[in-house]
Amino acid sequence: MNAFEYVNPSNLQDVPKLLSQKRDRKSVVMAGGIDLLGEMKDNLVSPTRLVNIKALDLRYIRHSKEGVHIGATTTLTEVASDGEIGKTYTALAEAAESVASLQIRNVGTIGGNLCQRPRCWYYRGEEFHCLKKGGHLCFAVEGENKYHAIMGGGPCHIVHPSDTAPALIALQATLKIQGPNGERTVPAADFFVLPEENIYQETVLMPNEVVSELFVPKPKAGTKSTYLKFKEKGSMDFALAAAAVVLRVEDGICRAAQVVLGGVAPKPWQADASALVGQSVTEDRAVAFANAVLKDASPLRDNAFKVTLVKTMIKRGVMALV
Amino acid sequence: MKQEPNPLEKESGISRRTFLQGIGAGAAATGLLTVAAPPQTADAKEAYGTSVGPNATQVTLKINGTEHRTAVEPRHTLLDVMRQKLDITGPKPICERGSCGGCTVMLDKQPIYSCMMLAIDAVGKEITTVEGLSKDGELDPVQKAFVQHDAQMCGFCTPGFVVSVRALLDRNPNPTLNDVKKAVSGNTCRCGTYPRIFEAALTAAKLQRGGV
Amino acid sequence: MADMKPWGERYLTGTDVQRLDGEDKVTGRAKYTYDLNFPGMLYGKILRSQHPHAKVIKVDLTRAAAHPGVKAVFDFEKQTVRYAGEEVAAIAAVSPEVADEALKLIDVTYEKLPFSVREETSMAEGAAQIHPNGNVAMDERRQSEKGDTVAGFAEADAVIEKTYRVPVQTHTSLETHGAVAQWDGDKLTVWSSTQGVVGVRDDLAKYFDLPPENVRVLCEHMGGGFGSKFGPGAEGVAASVLARSAGVPVKLMLNRKEEHLAVGNRPSAIMTIKMGAKKDGKITAFESQTYGTGGVGGIGNIPLPYVFDIANYKSELKDVHINAGGSRAMRAPGHPQAEIGMDCAMDALADAVGMDPLAFRKANGSRANEIRLKQYDIGAKEIGWERRNKVAGSAKGPVKRGIGMGCGMWGGGGNKRSYVEVQIHSDGTVDAKCAIQDIGTGSRTILAMTVAEELGLTLDQVTPHVGDTNFPPGTGSGGSSTTPSMVPAAKTAARKAKGELLALVAPLLGVDAAMLETRQGQIQVKGNGKSMSWTNATAQLASDIVVTANRDDGYHSSGAAGVHFAEVEVDIETGRIQPIKIVAVNDCGLVVNKLLAESQVNGGVIGGLSYALLENRLLDRQTGVMVNPNMEAYKVAGAMEMPEIVPILMDMPERGVIGLGEPATIPTAGALANAVYNAIGVWVTDFPMTPDKVLNALAQG
Fold this sequence. Notes:
The complex is a heterotrimer of chains A (322), B (212) and C (701). By secondary structure, chain A is an alpha+beta fold. Helices cover 27% and strands 23% of the residues of chain A. The longest helix of chain A has 15 residues. Chain A is globular. Chain B is built from eight helices and six strands; from the N terminus they run H-H-H-E-E-E-H-E-E-E-H-H-H-H. In chain B, helix 5 packs across helix 8 and helix 6 packs across helix 8. Chain B is elongated and about 55 Å long. Chain C is α+β, with helices and mostly antiparallel strands. In chain C, 27% of the residues lie in helices and 23% in strands. In chain C, the strands form six sheets. Chain C has a seven-stranded mixed sheet. In chain C, strands 7, 8, 9, 14, 15 and 16 form a six-stranded mixed sheet that branches. Chain C has a four-stranded mixed sheet with strand order 17-25-26-27. Chains in contact: A-B, A-C, B-C. Chains A and B meet through strand 1, helix 1, helix 2, strand 3 and helix 6 of A and helix 3, strand 1 and strand 5 of B. Strand 1 of chain A pairs antiparallel with strand 1 of chain B.
């Protein structure tokens, strides 16, 4: 890794200034460091300043009757093992628990999990000067693309690797972002961008901004949620496909539904779940819904299998909650 | 969870002037390129908080109960500092990307990948490596059980597994087979010792309870 | 085969004995090459080509050499590089960080050349030549023929023809390749992560034009090799050259990416197999066309037809070059590939003639058939073969279970190149030395066990010493040859050393030395009660007894079988294969250490499982670069992939020692593939059997 100075900011408001002082992403946020150190070791980025936001008071889980506030540097283990999150925001607990391995979850933060860069092996390979890195070509189009997007792709075909993102979007979370002009709030659903909007980054976060907190509103009574993750290697892997499902069923009738997919698109893919609302949830309806969600999938040469896989994940995710 | 006071402030305790004077000597000693070390950013240090690096600073790392004082640059990982500067070679470099577990140590009792942790982030914490598990020459029950069940072959993955299993039993003294598998899912073995590691973990749990 | 010698009383061999270095490994005390730190030591690093095929026009080390932190530079003097990852130059620097920076100061001018990273591309009409020997070699010695296949197919009641594709697999040793080199005048000492200290020593002596006694190679512990760690390698040579140039020790260890690119792999195999049989199960004809790649190296042999006796066959093998790292022997080279093709074809043909695959195999002769027939029954009973679906895929889904089997064979038998020195001291202790290495198999433990047992002693009375070329020469640990080479040599040397001691004390007991034997720490007169304790006997020694010997015949033989049975669960809606249970029945002649031998079987099974389900060295066609040179995307089986594994070893002391490391890994992958077919009723013929392959196979019906 290249040499860098390590700055412990005194307060959150100083962070944008510290980030702004260098151009070309030479001053970056460091939380758990799991993704950042990997990128640095692979020579993808070479910041000369790391701003250590663990020095700030951003590691907390605060429950209230409105919902739960989670500081950005709360570890994934802390999120996964919080009893109230497990009970009330189950999809989030399951998503956090599903990440990587225990050793990673003990250090990796929820903010970092949302802001991590893609795992696409062309992006991660320093030999490939791909579109996302300012180059001329998306190597996945003609290349080895079994892990790449089946929806929303183009001109870059990454899948977003975060597990907590689909769960947070399905739970209608919002993110608090600290920038040079103060604080702004962005719904998790609007935090991520498709390549056609901005190919160089996966979120709306500017280089001089930092996510400080997440807020997840308390689901209405009777709401259940789950995060189903399918891994090619069960021991430790990113999602080959995943489904975050939130359902509220009252008197056998589905009153509200959110379904957000992981591993299928450059950003977590929010399905239109309105078809599930207003009737009972049956397996036939779940299958029909899944087929509709994947209707316009446009797989690449090697990833058509994901269409079948994702339909299964949607069906099983929905049926798990009834 | 309140963040602890910045350990670097406590440890270094040197003025900026001394720090800058020391840069030349530090660079030669650590063999840093004389070419490209970026200048200290006055803005960062004085206005917005403390900063260290890019040159080396003296830090104290508490490993297996012993305090080690050594010079580290911010970019040095805990794994590299332990192995290269302190000759603590139990934790192994295998994938160096946090995907195989060979470098697993405990940080305040929690298993982590030391190859993905900056040494400076480990300051002020209790670091436990495989070397720290036996007490006064007596093997830890996990170590005893590994030997008994032949849960090691070439042994290169063994330190990481032993620490992961020790950490599991600290969290859960009565694990099921599935608990054991999940606890070591972040550790990889190429020789194929997994089945005997599972047996060893369950035996170690019994040994701790005074059985077997 | 020579007449077998009596082994004598077995109270250590055949039992569970904990490995002697277990405690060192679980405490972190065991030192590997990667762990060594010497005062003033420099860090070596290699610059590698990013191009898959290029002429090397110029290598300019001036800027790197001028860096104050760089103490030595080395040019591999390549004229052409033929894969992305091939070595071009090396430097030694004061820290790993400076070493990384210094590589960027090396200026290399390349002229890019056309490349191929697919077998089919290399074989295509008009393909650019990417290898000096031509893109494809069809060697007469790898074409084999017997009988009359035309007649054979004509008399068959059913014929199947299928194509199986198995990928390139990398060894993924956890300790990467590397060495620490140190010079003292014209004497070189090298600590090497190696499977053959003697081979490294010999090669380095040759390279530096030194007498072998000037080079010492040490390897006390090493973190896995699986066939890839023979010889010093570019890294060992570079470390030694840099160390000589710099005048201080140099440590050069590869990183994980280099480990995937440049230190060997198991060749791929695309096997088209046509096989016919009669209704009674007798195979009447076999034909195969195989091609595959060992990169810039060779494919070796893919032995088809495999295991089974077939009167009429014709097999052809094309060795195709691509621009990728050269192959190296990997645990049972050629056999796992052949086993997948053969065992899947056997099951497909059994299906076609309407026979149970176990009965089908029994209806045909095979290598080591007598032992194999026993293994069939032992394994079938343990897995519960009768639970197997009579009709493939007939279970209710979406999660379906299936059971399958696979067969392997191996030669083994070792060689006469291991010499063991046994020293008996006057205090009764014994040292046994041999320049083999313990690569995780437990060699040092079985060395001590063999000597102790031959001398009638307890294990703690014998201290083994391995991993140092100062000891009598030992064989490289490959081909499953260490145990059958070293154990008989240890037994021979111990027997001879014992003979000297017995000759010394025979007069004291008033009998002929031939009347004496060692037993339970005593020198006893056969037949009557007279005895003298071992320590009283050794106390008579004026000087140590030292005997060095290689093996006498009579303690080893060759020819192992091996039959594995697997049960899997397949989720037809996701394509996930979950192994449930694997029963591995293996023979290795005399089982030296049952505990360690079972670990070898476990390890072989897990290697085969990982090969069948997860591993794939993948090259990007557009750039010729490996897309997954890390342990995240090159997937090796972990804890959640583990089934219940039941290793069953047949202990056959009458056959002497044979070797086990490779036989234990061969039959697993095919057993899993056959179990998958039994579960879902469609064949997955493209490996690894990742979920996408299963779903694709199901979609095609």
